[in-house]
Amino acid sequence: MRKNGIRRTNKRCMVKDRKEMTEEMRDKKKAGNGGIVRRLLAGAVLVGCLSALGPVEALAAKRPYAYGTSGEDEEAYGPALAGNAASTGTGIAGISGADGIAAASALDASTGSGPNQIVEDNAEAAAKRAALADNTLEFSEIAGRIENYNVSFRNTKSTTLGKLINQGVISELTEEARDLTKEADDLKEDEMDEEDKALYESYRLTANELRKKAADIRHTETDSLETSLRQSRNSLIKMVQNQYIAYEKAKYSLNAARKSEAACENDLSAAQTKQSAGLASEADVLEARNKLLAAQKKTMSAESQLSGAKNKILISLGWDVDADVEITDIPAPDMSLIASIDLAADTQTAITSNYSLITTRKGSSKTTAAKTQKNRAVTASKTMITSSMNTLYAAVVSKQQAYDAAQDAWAKAQNDWNSAQIKYRGGLSGRSEYLSAEAAYENALASEKSAELDLISAMQTYDWAVAGLIANG
């Protein structure tokens, strides 16, 4: 009782001191109220400057599901997505390249248990950084290059993480506002005039409003931002993978076109020589010339396709368009993975992970009619995804069969080419037959590689559908 009495006496003294303030001080107090309220309301915007104090990537380590791994809510976030398929064996094509994502993650943080662990992590991060920064591009490095060098993604990532940091500071300011609320409630019990009570009541109301706003942002907007960032990253990876496949197709097509052009040039020269000797007609020469022109046109088209595909890759992955970058071949597909596909399980995962369906599920449905419409939309989307997964699986099987046939044709072309070389070296055939056989071999190789890349593309498309990237609607 005595302690409480002392407390009440001290508070009365404080109140008495406040009542002795001059009118000027009271005006300043009123102005201060407005300043505090404005400070609280503007906190979400002003705190964006805090991102300059440290790398925004630090937040990413706390939110792994924004970077390709699942959150606690599978229904909302889906399974471990791009970046984990290759390392966990969950995908049939290793959709984003585990090495690339691992490199990006390692660059963001080194969180060992001691100094030695930190040194090891830093060394590993440096090695991965060096691999990404060299001028040799591997298919598995696409994800890492997107994370670290794609201008569009880095801007999106910076903006998104900035918003997430802002939300964290809003939460901190709300905690501060909650303290003000408690103080206002304590002082409200003492002998204050109506003006003071109104002043401190406004603090309490403002704090409560900010607290509700921060909670709403934390539970809704944050999830949407993270999902959007993940979708943006994965969409870019998928796009560059398609560009990479187009580049490799064009490369083999160009080799075949050049060999065909060389054979046509030789045929034209031979036709002209025969015409001079009276052994060929003008029509024969004209036919040979037209074949050469067609071959040259095909070569120029292949050169244009190759150059265009390479430029797109370089720009997308942060290189200058004229950078001297070696783009290595895509590894051959693992055929055993196709046999291990579980279509039913993959379809369920695709439904859970689908970005469009996630958005639909999170849509507002406060009225009965809205809920009914939302349920219908969800059901329709599930049906569409199931149908699409069946189609994509059928495409994988079809491309596998086409690839098998192309390999058989290429094996025959290899035998023919080996025989042609032996005959030519033994003087049993002329240069025309030799060049024609070489062109046939290169065209068979281009067809075999095209079929292989078509299969890889089908596997990639299937994997990305499982990971949530599939047209919905």
From TrEMBL:
Pfam families: OEP
SUPFAM superfamilies in the cross-refs: Outer membrane efflux proteins (OEP) (SSF56954)
Coiled-coil region: 170-197
Cellular compartments per GO CC: cell outer membrane; efflux pump complex
InterPro entries documented for this protein: OMP_efflux, TolC-like
Record carries keyword Transport: yes
GO molecular function: efflux transmembrane transporter activity; porin activity
Gene3D superfamilies according to UniProt: Outer membrane efflux proteins (OEP)
Keyword field contains Ligase: no
Predominant cellular place of this UniProt entry's protein: membrane
Keywords on record: Cell outer membrane, Coiled coil, Membrane, Transmembrane, Transmembrane beta strand, Transport
Subcellular location: Cell outer membrane
PANTHER family per the UniProt record, alphabetical: OUTER MEMBRANE PROTEIN TOLC (PTHR30026:SF20)
Family that this chain belongs to: Belongs to the outer membrane factor (OMF) (TC 1.B.17) family.
Listed name of the protein: Outer membrane efflux protein
Taxonomic source organism: [Clostridium] aminophilum
Lineage: Bacteria, Bacillati, Bacillota, Clostridia, Lachnospirales
